[in-house]
Amino acid sequence: MVKDKIETVLGKIAPGELQQTLTHEHVSLNFLKHLVPTSDSCQNMVNCEFTMQNLNWIRHNPYSCKPNVLLSNKTEAVVEDLKLYKKAGGSTIVENTSLGLSRDVMKMKAIAEQTGVNIVCGTGYYVEKQLTDEMKALSVEQMTEKIVSEINDGIDNTNIKPGIIGEIGCSWPLTEVEKRSLRASAIAQAQTLTPVMIHPGRHPTAPDEILRVFQEQGGDAKHTVMAHLDRTLLENADILEFAKCGTFLEYDLFGIETSYYQFAPEIDFPSDAQRIDRVGLLISEGYDERVLFAHDIHTPHRLTRYGGHGYTHIFDQVVPKMLRKGISKEAIDKILISNPKSWLTYA
Questions:
Q1: How far, CA to CA in Å, does 262 sit from each of 16, 106, 147?
Q2: Quick one: which of 125, 290, 344, 347 has the fewest CB in 10 Å?
Q3: 115-118 contacts: CB < 8 A, separation 24 or more?
Q4: Strand ranges (DSSP E) for the chain?
């Protein structure tokens, strides 16, 4: 059994239509449940507007500004940036908004039609914190049934089908709800030959634990992405050890250049230069066919209308830097073209 077509919100496409692809982006979501409290002295900034005077504060406190956790309200700005992405040679994005994040596949379809960018959407469940009480109460069997139904029959009475299972949200430590979600994702993957995207908890041991739970239920590492490794595995030895597990290795926070990370203040958030160096290490160790790239745009301040870098940043800044650091165009093409095709198909 093979799956040699890729589902997009506008229907199936052949792998050859994929071309340059960012495997972890968003075009619409609601992240209000992750709003981070701020100090008494900054309470006046919680509802601040995107002005030049406020931009530095928002960049360093992105999850404390209510307007900045509602990408769902910024569709025009998203469309503007995806048109620039298409003009720059971008072909496809994988949209990772899963259940619990106010997924809107009809909006994704409209954006794809307006921009000419292929959009691959997802199914499955995000972290427990974002889920409704009804979602949290579901059994493994019920979660599996929901995922498989969307893959086979379409989402919410539409003909739009997900091309991935994900992003599947995992906290640290894993909750019982999230373990059920992982198991359901593994079962659904095996039944439908649909690739999986996993959002790991913010701890260096999280990816290994997640993969153990996932594989115990029959999950296939070869068609699974472990996302956000740039903020999770910060030591060379850790990433090289995890790379042996066989998942795709995603560096998907390009464009974030602030060292302070609100969700894990104890770590030093890496720069683009550090991400590139880590990717260079993986390439030199023979893992060039397992690396994927993205920006994970999920807050408005990263869109160009609001002073951000947009979806073209990897093309504009990262690729030239990689070439200057001696990474070959062949390796870059694998990351942006060949590897996404390998992940998204079962041919």
A1: 40, 32, 31
A2: 347
A3: 115/79, 115/82, 115/83, 115/85, 115/86, 116/83, 116/86, 117/82, 117/85, 117/86, 117/90, 117/91, 117/92, 117/93, 118/6, 118/8, 118/10, 118/13, 118/17, 118/18, 118/91, 118/92, 118/93
A4: 6-8, 11-13, 21-25, 92-95, 118-120, 122-123, 164-169, 196-199, 224-226, 248-251, 291-293
Chain centroid to CA 77: 19
7 phi and psi, to 5 degrees?
-80, 130
Indicate whether 347 pLDDT > 80. no
Q: Would you say residue 3 has pLDDT above 90?
A: no
**Chain centre to alpha carbon of residue 105:** 16
Residue 89 has φ and ψ, to the nearest 5°, of 110, 5
pLDDT at residue 1, rounded to an integer? 66
* Structure tokens given for 143: 């979660």
Residues facing 229 on adjacent strands: none
User: Is the full-model pTM beyond 0.85?
Assistant: yes
pLDDT tens-place string over residues 36-52: 999 999 999 999 999 99
